[in-house]
């Protein structure tokens, strides 16, 4: 099912997080950031089944604790409120109180129980939230089901991002149209000053939160967990999926005859957002996609792919449009996965550079032209160990990565 | 014993790999590189006890296989021959034959059995060695016990390095002077075009190869394995220690009364070389030293320290002289080690920035001044979990790292 959109799953032009029935969104300027929008909300007119995955960093920001508590209560939420400009991370007791207050004010504003509210923050670590600004901002949140509402939300969650990340897929379940819309932010896998990866996905599918959670966890491993910009993992990363059920299909589960198109729509949404994040990596000029076949397992294939795409040397070589396969085989060698040093194939785009671990003569000009003329650089590896396959995505390492991260805070 | 030179272990000005009795060295230009010296040898007038550690990359270059075979035969070698400019890695059968021929020609030239010869290569991956140049070069190797001989050897093993790395310590064992001299190369932890970490250490101590091997393995974990420039691990990394025994002390082992000064001399030699490599990381402007205390074990302390010093975001912040402790706590959080999110202290030089995981008010100016005015930036972390402590070393991430690695091969 990897990346193959069956005819029943289509991408919707100008689709967004408000395309699925029941959802509205907004974004505004509260004053936490200097100028740009910094507070947003997604609202669902009914309590939505919810699933979420969080950063595996042992240091987790206060809003993650509060959101986990909300979701644990009933597996449903109705409102999700996000601020950018301040991560409310490493802020101790006061930070936790602030996150609770943010949830309470949002619950009052949207007139829903507190445990129907998720809160999340992204931005500077170690500084307290300007709660006066946040509170008066929350009171002004007016969500709409228009594209403008979705765009404003998307703007409000961005930090060092240079582009919006959004996508929407549709499919049929029980003959009813089901939409899945998503937005994301993130440009360093983390930049604890002003980054973090966040993604919010909405759908009108009818699905229980446990089933949704299982699908999200599996899909996250193959999409959001397969991208890397700099290998750092934020204290605030979070992916939340809300399902309103307003498509009125029979409740989805893996035994439902239309489970596959729904699963693919959700998977394509997450993969698209993940690739958009990788493409917008800090300072990136190109998206790198690594496809590994012939690994011991699918998991190992993903691990090898991620090691290659995470190598600063490979990333620098792509920036320099240098078909440097030595750096690729080197990353394969230290991936910690099962390999046979004598049976490795490596191709860069259309150019085969290594077959059975033996260098082959290839045209450096052709390889260079491929790397210069394409926005997405595809690296293909076959390990010839077994049948595991998997992909990972990243970006090249440019002067601008250093500029952005050396100069940001000061 | 970490880093504390007792009065009985002293650093020798202008000491080198030929300071220990019995050793001579040389370096010359064979034509593998465009201009600079590219072939070197260390010779010992007697068969020397030998210990070695190799890259943990599953892809290992041909000369590593040949050298392992030499050492396995008797645990002794007399000659070590190195070329730079070509790594003889991923070169298949022909590469292995070339490495054997390099060993055979060296054995003939130095008139020793083949298994008394170690060979090693560093440079471009995936190209065959120009054996005509290597063979005629080997025939011209004339080692001397002068500082010039040692310097020529050091020049011959360099690639993208911008400075020589060498050190020599002396101590007393059984009342006799024992010297330990070392050289190293490496500036990306790997740059498969023209890098790799190599280190060669000589001593006139009398010690069996098994005992030496055990000491080297332990010490390597705390020194060479605690540095990172870019997290990549070469196919060619190798550390070799040769012990001539000509100091004529009683054979050393941990029960020998003078074991500790010898061990410290060897450890200081390796630590000094490791730090010199980190300081000369590609594009580096500063050495970063991270000291972690209060970890569950010494190993975990080292692991946390290495995660911090390996974070591109921390490295960029040091380059930008930004006391960005948020990036440090973030790396601690994803280190995979036992931590308590509520009990972490972080200091940058003299400036305490976090106590018990609570941000403390500090002077940004003082922190910035510290980072601007020092060549070595010390980051101190206390986890307050248990008593494990350990250090790691790295360098900042500058525009030049990208320039060197994007533009090198082409």
From TrEMBL, chains A, B:
Pathway: Amino-acid biosynthesis; L-arginine biosynthesis; L-ornithine and N-acetyl-L-glutamate from L-glutamate and N(2)-acetyl-L-ornithine (cyclic): step 1/1; Amino-acid biosynthesis; L-arginine biosynthesis; N(2)-acetyl-L-ornithine from L-glutamate: step 1/4. Substrate binds at residues 159, 185, 196, 282, 405, 410. It is found in: Cytoplasm. CDD domains: OAT. The record marks 122-123 as: Involved in the stabilization of negative charge on the oxyanion by the formation of the oxyanion hole. Its EC number is 2.3.1.35, 2.3.1.1. The record marks 195-196 as: Cleavage. The active site is at residue 196. Pfam families: ArgJ. It catalyses: L-glutamate + acetyl-CoA = N-acetyl-L-glutamate + CoA + H(+); N(2)-acetyl-L-ornithine + L-glutamate = N-acetyl-L-glutamate + L-ornithine. It is an enzyme of class 2 (transferase). The keyword Amino-acid biosynthesis applies. Keywords: Acyltransferase, Amino-acid biosynthesis, Arginine biosynthesis, Autocatalytic cleavage, Cytoplasm, Multifunctional enzyme, Transferase. Its main location: cytoplasm. It comes from the Bacteria. One of its GO terms (molecular function) is L-glutamate N-acetyltransferase activity, acting on acetyl-L-ornithine as donor. InterPro entries: Arg_biosynth_ArgJ, ArgJ-like_dom_sf, ArgJ_beta_C. Belongs to the ArgJ family. Catalyzes two activities which are involved in the cyclic version of arginine biosynthesis: the synthesis of N-acetylglutamate from glutamate and acetyl-CoA as the acetyl donor, and of ornithine by transacetylation between N(2)-acetylornithine and glutamate. Heterotetramer of two alpha and two beta chains. This is Arginine biosynthesis bifunctional protein ArgJ. It comes from Halalkalibacter kiskunsagensis. The gene is argJ.
